[in-house]
Design brief:
It contains 10 helices and 16 strands. The protein is an alpha/beta fold and about 300 residues long. A hairpin with a 2-residue loop joins strand 1 and strand 2. The chain binds adenosine-5'-triphosphate. This is Heme ABC transporter ATP-binding protein.
Length: about 300
């Protein structure tokens, strides 16, 4: 399969400081790539280089085999949607108007029944239909984040009418979300990837990264220091070193589960078989068990057995 977006030997420097160095990465249709790494590692900068928002100091990014910088903005808007880490809005838009921007950027008819249906679907998928008429600047942080997710869903849906291959870039899309909306958003990202879109997400939550990524990329100081199957990347000692925290492996638990942090007590990330099982498993089956220790939430899936990583 050919990559949809391909970056080779990318460098990006500001005033002689290398923010991204020698980054080579391909995004394939149907695959969800997650980038993790400490603050300032260069993750957002790399996402901007791959999405065409920034141009590399050296190296090349191509999309469908064409150099990204040669693709006109109107066509790029149809081929890829970007949810930035933070978005400032200059006018007092309603939620629906912000989501409609996803259509306006494509230069397509943003009025009419078809457009309304795309917008309604995006609002529903991001669970903000009830907020459609609210002013964006009166929303909570998580509601604003879901509004921008709806906007990019809307842009992708409209762009799909003319472009069969697309990419979705998500920069910390779940940072302000509660656990249900984190899972809902990542489920949607997974579904979008499964529909043939190349998805790249930056996440700080290693649980989410482990649960949803097809490929996990670790960045440190501008460089890609690991890339591959999440279970392998998480199981090695690299993450302890990169994040400066102690990580040790635990024995397999009796049931596959996704355990969320309880205070600062523990963080657990699942290996690939459990991720697959979890994705397919029911999310309404909530129990609370982990030996004698309490844990905040545990999503149980009876069918899987697995090992997991444990941050005490
Ligand atoms: N235009 C710029 N001028 C100077 N420094 C910059 C510029 N853009 C980014 N940087 C620096 O480059 C580094 C990487 O920034 P980037 O936003 O890509 O990091 P990140 O990995 O996404 O971090 P975070 O997890 O905190 O969001 C940071 O130290 C940042 O301060």
């Amino acid at each position: 399969m050919k990559p949809f977006v391909e970056a080779r030997a990318l460098h990006y420097a500001v005033r002689g400081v290398h923010i991204v160095a020698d980054a080579t990465l391909s995004l394939f249709p149907g695959r969800l790539v997650v980038i993790v790494g400490p603050n300032g590692a260069g993750k957002s900068t790399l996402l901007k280089l791959l999405s065409g928002e920034l141009h590399a100091s050296s190296g090349e990014v191509s999309c469908c085999g064409e150099p990204l910088r040669r693709i006109p903005a109107w066509l790029l808007a149809r081929r890829r949607a970007v949810m930035a880490q933070a978005t400032q809005l200059a006018f007092p838009f309603t939620v629906e108007e912000v989501v409609r921007i996803g259509l306006d950027t494509l230069g397509v008819d943003a009025r009419g029944e078809a457009a309304d249906e795309i917008i309604a679907r995006a609002l529903r998928r991001a669970d903000i239909s009830n907020l459609a008429r609210r002013k964006y600047d009166t929303l909570s942080g998580g509601e604003q984040q879901r509004t921008h997710f709806a906007r990019v869903l809307c842009q992708l849906a409209a762009g799909r009418r003319s472009e069969s291959c697309q990419a979705l870039f998500l920069d910390e899309p779940a940072a302000s979300l509660d656990i249900r909306h984190q899972l809902t958003l990542m489920d949607a990202a997974r579904e979008i990837a499964d529909s043939g879109v190349a998805v790249l997400a930056i996440l700080h939550d290693l649980n989410l990264a482990a649960a949803y990524a097809d490929q996990l990329v670790v960045m440190r100081a501008g460089k890609l220091v690991a890339s591959g199957d999440p279970a392998k990347v998480l199981a090695g000692g690299l993450l302890s070193e990169v994040f400066g925290v102690h990580l040790r492996l635990c024995a397999a638990p009796p049931k596959a589960a996704f355990i969320l942090p309880h205070g600062h007590a523990r963080r657990i990330a699942w290996s690939q078989p459990a991720q697959t099982a979890l994705r397919r498993g029911p999310l309404d089956n909530l129990v609370c068990e982990q030996g004698s220790e309490p844990c905040a939430t545990l999503l149980k899936n009876e069918n899987a057995s697995t090992s997991f990583s444990f941050w005490p």
